Amino acid sequence: MISKMKKIALFYSYNTKNTSKAAKLIQETFDSQQIEKHNVEETNEEEFNAYENFILGVPTWFDGELPNYWDEFLPALEELDLSGKTFALYGAGNQKEYSENFVDALGLMAESIESLGGKLIGFVPNEGYSFEHSKALRGDHFVGLPLDFEVQPKLVKPRIEKWVEQLKKEF
Ligand SMILES: Cc1cc2nc3c(=O)[nH]c(=O)nc-3n(C[C@H](O)[C@H](O)[C@H](O)COP(=O)(O)O)c2cc1C
Description:
Helices cover 32% and strands 20% of the residues. The protein is of the alpha/beta class. It has a single domain, classed as 3-Layer(aba) Sandwich (Rossmann fold), CATH 3.40.50.360. Strands 1, 2, 3, 4, 5 and 9 form a six-stranded parallel beta sheet that branches. A three-stranded antiparallel beta sheet has the order 6-8-7, with no helix packed on it. Helix 1 links the parallel strand 1 and strand 2. The protein is globular. Flavin mononucleotide binds next to helix 1.
């Protein structure tokens, strides 16, 4: 059995369309037993704090904002010390319709996690995307994996496969 320490908790909203699709692909690409999925809309801080390794699914909504369910859960995390814990972020966005705010929520989540002591992994180069501005960019890398189901649907699966290979080394 894989211990809780080695398990990777995948938190996202089960009510999302694209973020859920990506979660399924991520789980299939990993050794599925290693991934434990949780609905962020129904979780609590104890369930969250039981893990050391995390993948968080964070789509961008409302012109550059986190979705409500993440905004509502983040204050609960502020009670926790996330130091020593490792986080990989992925986020759905649309680089054409929301070129000025492309996957901004990834950047917002990255700031929150780091301010609580968490370590981020899974950065990907800004290559193959076309947009004006993103809060998720640090230099020439995103702070997680941007997925664009509307403009680049065919790239979703290969991007996830490549990212999971990277995460297997970085976790
Ligand atoms: C009202 C609305 C606002 C959005 N705002 C943004 C945005 O600011 N930045 C972005 O990259 N994508 C934005 N999107 C695109 C969504 O992130 C994209 O459709 C994503 O695939 C939704 O994922 P989900 O189905 O998991 O919620 C927006 C979509 C809608 C409908």
